Amino acid sequence: MILKSNDSCLPAHSETADQAATEGSWQQAREAAIYYLSLKKSSSGQVRRYLVRKGWSAPAAAAVTQTLVNDGYINDLLLAQQVLKGRCGSKAESFAHLEQRLKRLGFPSAVRFQALETYRHEGQSDLKLLAAFLKSKYASELRLLRDQELTPAESRELHLLLRRRSASRGFSPAVLRQLLNLWGLTSE
Known about the structure:
By secondary structure, the chain is mainly α. The chain contains ten helices and no strands. The protein folds into three domains: 49 residues; 49 residues; 56 residues. The termini are far apart.
């Protein structure tokens, strides 16, 4: 029996081979992602970027990552909430900076929004976060501001220091002014 070049078995065979190769590649990508997750907790965005860096296509990386989310290997919301809770006290940042941090860590926008809203409903605000930051990092400077014997130049210098440090964490001068007024440490 002679096979014709237009035999229908040939394309089906090559399609099956391509499909098997694709499934094998997908399985390898999944295993690589699970290995990466075993090294450290990572968001879906971080896993997706890792797979792309390792050579998988963006659609394949997105598909593998989505299956890992569906299978429970990745819980973006829980991880985002852990990141937020870790950014308190001396590590406190404004909500705007926290949102940017979550974005850099690869969390989807819906997860970022939900995690930040939950954090707000737990009683956090920029004012409370700034208070915790200043009390933990700049307690001695705050005590100096309470000193009645400071010259206006020294007082202004301390206020500028606090303003710069607060701004580096994303807090606006208005929030700092409000907090200092609440504490009776008004700036000139």
